[in-house]
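Propose amino acids for all 170 sites.
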């Protein structure tokens, strides 16, 4: 696994969350794909939403450690795994804030309310923004080309309204 120089930022005795991104597969490489790398005192894991279902149904489109920690996603569609884009660091959260983010990521298969994927709707950017919002990390954000990052905000009122209607009808 290549670290792309991020090993210098790792602190083996701390909690850290790195937010990285890379281009989306060709021909949509103008858009951004984000993922999180969690460092739990030297133990690394990667969390993201991909355009393919996870074998574990509870995870839906969420994946843990599907790709190498620091590498991006595939450059070419339909060619699963190689070559991969280079990952670029957007920011790092450390300490107690990172610990809270790791817990949000760890519980996301049960807590993340969106179980579908769409290039122009809810996607990897929606998930990353949901994690940032849920972790209350306001000093870290997704780039302008993170299409879909606001899709959940449009969907949440609909989900809440439907849940309330179902509860009232019981």
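Proposal:
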């Amino acid at each position: 696994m290549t670290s792309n120089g991020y090993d210098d930022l790792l602190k083996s005795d701390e909690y850290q969350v790195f937010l990285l991104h890379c281009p989306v597969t060709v021909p949509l490489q103008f858009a951004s794909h984000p993922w999180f790398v969690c460092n739990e005192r030297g133990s690394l894991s990667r969390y993201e939403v991909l355009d393919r279902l996870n074998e574990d149904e509870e995870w839906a489109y969420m994946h843990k450690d599907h790709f190498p920690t620091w590498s991006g996603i595939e450059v070419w569609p339909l060619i699963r795994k190689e070559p991969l884009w280079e990952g670029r660091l957007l920011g790092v959260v450390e300490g107690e804030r990172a610990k809270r983010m790791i817990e949000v990521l760890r519980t996301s298969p049960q807590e993340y309310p969106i179980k579908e994927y769409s290039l122009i709707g809810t996607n990897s950017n929606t998930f990353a923004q949901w994690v940032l919002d849920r972790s209350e990390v306001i000093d870290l954000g997704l780039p302008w080309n993170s299409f879909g990052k606001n899709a959940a905000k449009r969907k949440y009122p609909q989900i809440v309204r439907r849940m309330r209607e179902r509860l009232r009808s019981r």
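The chain has a mean pLDDT of 89. The radius of gyration is 16 Å.
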